[in-house]
Amino acid sequence: MQTVKFNELPVSEYILRAVEEMGWQDASPIQSQAIPVVLSGQDVIGQAQTGTGKTAAFGIPAIEKIDVNDKSTQVLIMCPTRELALQVKEQMHQLSKYKKGLFVSSIYGGESYERQFRDLKRGAHIVVGTPGRIMDHMERKTLDLSNLQMMILDEADEMLNMGFRDDIEKILSFAPEERQTILFSATMSRDILNITKRFQNNPEHIKVTRQEITNDNIEQLFFNVRRDAKTEAMCRLIDVNDLKLMLVFCNTKSKVDEVTMELQERGYSAEALHGDLRQGARNQVMNKFRNGNCSILVATDVAARGIDVNDVDAVFNYDVPLDLEYYVHRIGRTGRAGKKGQAFMFVSNRDKGKLRDLERYTKVRIDEGKIPTVADLREIKIQQFKEQVVSNIDPDAISAYEGIVNELKEDGHQTEDIVTALIKMQLGSSLQMRSGQDDLSDGRRGDRDRGPRGDRRERGGERRRGERRERGERSERRGSRNNGGQGSGEPGMVRLFISLGRKDSVSPNHIVGAIAAESRIPGRVIGQIDMYDKFSFVEVPERDVHKVITGMKGKTINAREASIEVAK
After folding, report:
1. d(Cα 228, Cα 390) in Å, to the nearest integer?
2. Do 264 and 257 touch, CB atoms closer than 8 A?
3. For 446, which DSSP code?
4. Which residues of 495-505 are buried (b: 16+ CB within 10 A; e: fewer)?
5. pLDDT tens, position by position, 1-57
6. Cα 290 to Cα 277: distance, rounded to the nearest angstrom
7. How far apart (Å, rounded) are the C-alpha atoms in residues 510 and 278?
8. Rounded to whole angstroms, what are the CA distances from 347 to 227, 247, 351, 460?
9. Among 434, 433, 516, which residue's Cα sits nearest to residue 267?
10. What is the mean pLDDT of the chain?
11. Domain containing 507 — which CATH number?
12. Are residues 299 and 362 in the same domain?
């Protein structure tokens, strides 16, 4: 399809100024097709997946049609989740930046009504919200739709999947008949078509097919991995590819929590996002991810609706998606704004059939990737360290440190020994990786590179026993206790007091995650945690005490304000 630039579309100068500031030049296929039709006043059915630019496809015409002198609500946008509602509101703010006097508000559950009452009373030209909260405001008569000009349903299929059908139909029934109705959906189910027949007037169907959704800039690979080795494989891929910002998708909430904790214990800045989190905690997690304070977001598919961050380096399909359509949504969150992206999927032998189904569905062959070996990791760490050393060589600044080196040499230490010790201090134990973990592949069937079946079983048994011992030691170290213990007494560790306990819905996982993220220390160095009803104790290395106390000052643990100090 021929590329269309925004300045070739029938839009105002203030829109062109806004999109230029956002770094956009070429309109996406859905934008170039939908914007002129929506501007003409015709009802539209837009069929497009996440990542195709559909928010601007309906958002730009909506902004164009607003009369800023009329303070009533003229456009209502319905979204399935709070995250998507906030994302749409933010993009509407950006697109309307240079249209003076235009006001956009969001209304959704999990937040106090007070701010929403103020916004609606003040006069919100565009309201973005979830069906349940929209219904609440309509019943309270704080949201008046009598002057509504345009109704937009974003991700209508997902709203129906979440059980909002009755609310959607009631809201559409209360809106004025003389209105324009725009519906966007990734799929066209029978229920969606029934809604379009009842509530739209001769709509134009605009469809962006999978062939038009260009994923040419996304490298898609699958890795044959044992189920118990997925986290290790993911960490190796992160390190070797030097990834900075990642999304990890799991099929269940429990798996999201498990993977997040494993990443935190390995020293990665990871946060969980799923439906069990309260709204305050969800907002906090998303702000960390958008601001770069959290580098890995582990999420379920439903909770991730509305995540729209352009700089995601890679998407990990930790689990093969249960719904083939989810795969398209997942990988569409990387490789945006013309940048290269990567999509990795972990596949065990029992998932091979799903992989073939996925390739048929997307009409794309997904190549098999090679999991980095221990040698690969060691080589990349050494190379990164050498580059760091070279970048810090400054002849003019050497004199400040020469005295220390000379003192060590006067004490009888050789230059080579001093340098080696410094390298060891910098790299720590990262080059001394456990043996027996190089092969992470799931080779239970037809793996020609393995030895006899009995040999595989023996090695596998040893590996599983070792992993169980390691998990047991970690559990004992992190386990919540209430026996009045006075800490482990481990040398070099300091016990800290935390003002939150079990009754505050705080777990050892939350404490480790918060301290690792806010204090920038690896989760694996955090020691024993003792949990009580109203307070807790945690052990941290003596060298990190100041970093933890200052890093956690004014911060929260599981969305609850916490104070932390050295235990008396």
Report:
1. 39
2. no
3. S
4. bbebebbeebe
5. 567 899 999 999 999 999 988 878 888 889 999 999 999 999 999 997 666 788 999
6. 18
7. 14
8. 8, 17, 6, 19
9. 516
10. 83
11. 3.30.70.330
12. yes
